[in-house]
Model the fold of this input.
Amino acid sequence: MTEIPYKIYLEENEMPKEWYNVRADMKKKPAPILNPGTLQPVTIDELSHIFCTELAKQELDDTTPYFEIPEEIRNFYKMYRPSPLVRAYCLEKKLGTPAHIYYKFEGNNTSGSHKLNSAIAQAYYAKKQGLKGVTTETGAGQWGTALSMACSYFDLDCQVYMVKVSYEQKPFRREVMRTYGAKVTPSPSMETEIGKKINAEFPGTTGSLGCAISEAVEAATTQEGYRYVLGSVLSQVLLHQSVIGLETKAALDKYGIKADMIIGCAGGGSNLGGLISPFAGEVLRGEANYDIIAVEPASCPSLTRGKYAYDFCDTGKVCPLAKMYTLGSGFIPSANHAGGLRYHGMSSVVSELYDQGILRATSVEQTKVFEAAQMFARVEGILPAPESSHAIRVAIDEALKCKETGEAKNIVFGLTGTGYFDMVAYQKFNDGEMSDYIPTDADLEKSLSTLPKVD
Amino acid sequence: MTEIPYKIYLEENEMPKEWYNVRADMKKKPAPILNPGTLQPVTIDELSHIFCTELAKQELDDTTPYFEIPEEIRNFYKMYRPSPLVRAYCLEKKLGTPAHIYYKFEGNNTSGSHKLNSAIAQAYYAKKQGLKGVTTETGAGQWGTALSMACSYFDLDCQVYMVKVSYEQKPFRREVMRTYGAKVTPSPSMETEIGKKINAEFPGTTGSLGCAISEAVEAATTQEGYRYVLGSVLSQVLLHQSVIGLETKAALDKYGIKADMIIGCAGGGSNLGGLISPFAGEVLRGEANYDIIAVEPASCPSLTRGKYAYDFCDTGKVCPLAKMYTLGSGFIPSANHAGGLRYHGMSSVVSELYDQGILRATSVEQTKVFEAAQMFARVEGILPAPESSHAIRVAIDEALKCKETGEAKNIVFGLTGTGYFDMVAYQKFNDGEMSDYIPTDADLEKSLSTLPKVD
Done:
């Protein structure tokens, strides 16, 4: 048997040349997204007012299994991809587990996460359409950073509405975006009608993601030559992120490794969906079985405690309705340091796969997550993002189960990013000041009561 | 001809198994380091009171050309090495140069720089000697972070004296160190005699590197089972850092590329010395010629404007004297955002190579450096550390010269790290508030007047 290196890197010519669209292999498709005004399925034409036309097409295409990755995007990928599939030898040793643990590490780029995989695709199609620029929102800033990098590469204007509290408390992310030439505006701003309205209604508000989305959409639709882009939840984003899963599978295949479990953290579903897509496809086609696990924060448990129903994707209710596992668009997650997982809903593709039993879900509390993060950092040398650490927690727990049973399972998880800009959270943990919060049933009942009436 | 990939990764089995000691190939050796009390060459015995015995031996050995890299260290290296040698296709295109630009990227690890290469070696020898722990100082925090990671891996206690102003202004680096279990103390502290003395003499002082070194040395020599470790300047550090140059050379050789220029930033000389060692060795042995360039900040120009003389390595004057290019141990560099390059002297190995004409030196001003950093970040996708950006500046300038002359030179430079914890500096640049400062001749005359009398 070939010895497995610490890091499996594919050669450049082994990198995927096509993205994989898991919807094509689903017999029962995810429910269509609906126009919030008419409650009818959104058309490409309608969607093209908000998104680039090519991306609108990708969004609605649930039958084409493969999309060619344009050469310009593949060349950009070559600057930071293939990402390594790492054998966690040191973690295995620390745990004393017979399990073999692998992680696909997406953090070795300046955006610090997998977000760049879709940002560059969306920027490319915007450029190809001859647009001047794109608008978006960002909370913690990872998506905004990725998009800034992508737009800089294609010389596109990039306007980022950053939730005001993050803009003020996370100046470093803001500066990374500015270094890449993006215009970063604290939201709510006085530059959009919706921003002015919110500022008038709630003087001194520090903003929310929902509000920032509304501003970004308004900015895109009122400026000539602009479109709006989004970093998660959408099916087009999962399509682009399939590069993670395709590389992972190619690397495993190269060494003849058959994964038993695939574990990913789940916020809006972009990383999870991308990682699991090719594996879920095999399951859907009846070619293989995998234990696929979505890990979400106990404070924002859309899969494990939400409802599978049509809901608004944004708090401002300007975006299309999607059928998804949701806590209600009015759900306000408690202070949680995994900012990227604080979304009330879940990608409709991931939701439907979950509903069909292709994957299971579990939730974890944040102090346990940071304990796993610290252990991982110390033995594997990578300081993980709080989001990614949700997957680490469950991978460790599963490896410890293997220790009890003696099973040498192959556990694969997605390490989506690094925590270099999350040191405030680590400081809380280091100081023993981190707390957990789980919403009560009454909390969820209340937020779920705002679901729109569809049918 | 084989197409050169964007990133050249060696296989794990192609990684160096030995460090290279360039001193062995120098006919005229660097001058010996001297005991500050007796002014006689320091013995291994004397040095072993401060450093681990094995490291003391490495420090004084100027004849053994190769040192085996212990397997434990090689295994640790495998977690983040081999580091890629990147072909800067996008930068070349942006510049429109016929030159081929390559950079050895050392930033893909949580310490964010090449410092980890020596930290893990020093921690290993400390562990092997049965020590309880090590002490060190850190300014901006890169070295402290690297050492914290290394000590955590070998379960060694790690005590870091961090310059108080950095401790307070750079809380994120501090938290990374704490996450790895290090004890981080703002210096001057009330925990050492020298700290108490300095606090009494200068109430409210925010500290200096010199003071932190003195505290760390005191802490090492007054606690049973502790030694002091240092991240740059020393010949042992250059030995460990030769892994950078050896990998670079192996990657170039693999694709049949002959470097014309090797460019590195120079503070204490650890990265530069490590990168150039195998190339300088070829020059010394008469096997090849390279244009080797050390780049230093105009605000701290030890090679270009300093004097080649014996000097104290630390402001506190407790460490051995070294013959080196120096601005005088009392030289106080102006506010400069490349904290890692603010050292008054230069590694005695690099100094001697410079004196023998094996390398040349140039200095650059920081606004020009940040212009290069920004351009590089935008086209190559990596946000570079301010230190590394000194090398980028000169690589760009040399590539532009090639554009004029039409020469297709192979330019190789060291990209020592990322700038994720340097966003305050980028913010200054983004806001147009960055200034340059060059010391006057009178400034240097004054600081050089404090050189010790030796001979």
